[in-house]
Amino acid sequence: MTAKIMNRRAVLRGAGLITGGLLLDSGVAHAATGTATRPVTPDEAWATLREGNRRWVSGTATRPHQDPARRAEVAQKQDPYAVIVSCIDSRVPPEIVFDAGIGDLLTVRSAAQTIDPLVTGAIEYGPAELGVPLIVVLGHQRCGAVTAAAHALHDGTKLPGDLQRIVEALRPAYERSHGDVDKMIRVNTMDVVARLKKDKLLASRIARKRLKIVGAYYSLDTGEVTRLV
To answer: What is the pTM of this model?
Structure first.
């Protein structure tokens, strides 16, 4: 049985995971090419993300781990240091926002970073299978999904197709935000954090201090990521 489990993990590490239409990229993460090792603790991982975001904000991005040498380095194995749960918005690409590269981050993206069992499974993969020490739930300024949901809930209308599922997922944040879209974005982000912290697979790692889950907010105007908790 142990051998089968190890083989399963080896296959998952090598191939990456596609679930719910989300691709988790393969790769081994390091803080800087050839000079620093992968962040091991949650605080080290956050510090690496924060420094990368500072470079992005200041216009001094180094675009690490984005060359053929890095591609070859991570082709057979991955060891990312953070899972970023973010919106699908085209203006919020996590690797650019945090000035990271191939193999540094597992990115799980959905409208308004909402989660369901399939998305949660994708998020669990990083800590459970790869030992990723940090999950960041990243909301952002002027989120189109949140804005559309707020308008639909205010007007009592329904969005077409499965878009209405997004509206319903955001209803609790809307009700607690009294229609304030920016507050709703932040409340929803922290709601997702709270739900993930209660996930049994993740909670056990949090209890052993091997994992942290934090909420953050991205400004489209400045490019800055600020931590919510």
So the answer is: 0.85
Residue 27 to residue 75: CA distance in whole angstroms: 7
| Beta-strand pair 212-218/134-140 | parallel
Domains of the chain plus CATH, in order, are 2-227 (3.40.1050.10)
Dihedral angle over CA of 90, 211, 146, 50, nearest 10: -50
φ/ψ (deg, to 5) at 90? -65, -15
Count the helices and strands in the chain (H runs, E runs): 9, 7
On whether the CB atoms of residues 143 and 221 are closer than 8 A, the answer is no
Q: CA-to-CA distance for 203 and 8, rounded, in angstroms? A: 23
Task: Give me the amino acid identity at 126.
Answer: G
Please state the rounded mean pLDDT for residues 152-170.
98
pLDDT at position 229, please?
Answer: 78
First to last CA, the chain: 40
Alpha helices in the chain (DSSP H): 2-15, 42-58, 68-74, 94-97, 117-130, 144-155, 163-177, 181-198, 200-207
| Beta-carbon contacts of residue 111 (< 8 Å; ≥ 6 apart) | 87, 88, 145, 166
Task: Specify the amino acid at residue 216.
Answer: A
Which tens digit of pLDDT belongs to each residue from 31-60? 333 435 899 999 999 999 999 999 999 999
The predicted-structure confidence for 138-160, as pLDDT tens digits, reads as follows: 999 999 999 999 999 999 999 99
